[in-house]
Specification:
This protein is mainly alpha-helical and 41 residues long. It has a domain of 28 residues. The chain contains 2 helices and no strands. The longest helix has 13 residues.
């Protein structure tokens, strides 16, 4: 069985300020869900 290939990209990680700026621009039901997802992790 062949091995999986190594990924050639580095995953991007957002800072807390960037996440807050994105969540602030979301409309009501979506910003509540995004807040729950990011605050619980």
């Amino acid at each position: 069985m062949p091995r999986a290939r190594k990924s050639l990209y580095i995953p991007a990680v957002l800072s807390r300020e960037e996440i807050d700026a994105i969540v602030d621009k979301l409309p009501y039901p979506y910003n509540m869900v995004a807040n729950l997802l990011f605050d619980c992790s």
